[in-house]
Amino acid sequence: MDTSGIDELPLDQRQLVHSVTGRLQGEFTGTFGPETIERFVVDSLAQLLPTARITTYLPVLAERFARDRLRALGKVDGSLPSDIPGVLFMCVHNAGRSQMAAGWMRHLGGDRVAVYSGGSEPISEVNPAAIEAMAEVGVDITAEFPKPWTEEVVRAADVVVTMGCGDACPLYPGKRYEDWELEDPDGLDLEAVRAIRDEIRRRVEELLASLEIGVQA
């Protein structure tokens, strides 16, 4: 994790970090100190900035990214214990397959599973064809954004599903891994993406069944 001080950031980014950190402090009071929260916000911002085309939404995205990472850290270190299984979906760009899989898992598993996604080389936005294909079946992933995988999220996941990231995907001993061979939807037309979407749903349903989590209507 990037541990460089906040004073090294430009003024607008320092203001962003202060505002996001302040909001998260209220949520994680008694669990993490302000220094830890600020460190995660700074690092989350640093990891999102390189691929950000429009910085208007960076405060929201950095806050969401940092929140997910802090919750994962809390599960790992025991400060936020949880019996809910965690599933991490990983592909190269975190823009197509992994986002559709995460969308299906949230839609079908609800709050009975913690869902994460990440990429080894995240890009700037989710594939529009993936968004459209998921919208056709009532799953909204418009608010999702590509992001890298992080160590605490991998450690918090009980199941890691990889999709084409090969050796770039992290391997941790004792963790359950599945590799789903699925065509990358990048550059494909909507009809082809629909087929990938439907296959991902089938696999997500099988994964939920293996976790003894019934598919919600």
Characterise the protein shown here:
This protein has 217 residues and is α/β, with parallel strands linked by helices. It has two domains: 82 residues, Corynebacterium glutamicum thioredoxin-dependent arsenate reductase, N-terminal domain (Helicase, Ruva Protein, domain 3); 135 residues, Rossmann fold (3-Layer(aba) Sandwich). It is 47% helix and 10% strand. It has a four-stranded parallel sheet. Helix 1 crosses helix 2, helix 1 crosses helix 3 and helix 5 crosses helix 7. The longest helix has 21 residues. It is globular. The protein starts with 10 loop residues before the first helix and ends in a 7-residue tail after the last helix.
Based on the model shown, name its key terms:
single chain; globular; four-stranded parallel beta sheet; Helicase, Ruva Protein, domain 3; 217 residues; Rossmann fold; 7 helices; 2 domains; alpha/beta
How would the blueprint of this fold be written?
Elements: H1 11-27, H2 34-48, H3 58-77, E1 86-91, H4 97-109, E2 114-119, H5 128-136, H6 151-156, E3 159-163, E4 176-179, H7 190-210
Parallel strand pairs: 1-2, 1-3, 3-4
Helix pairs in contact: 1-2, 1-3, 2-3, 4-7, 5-7
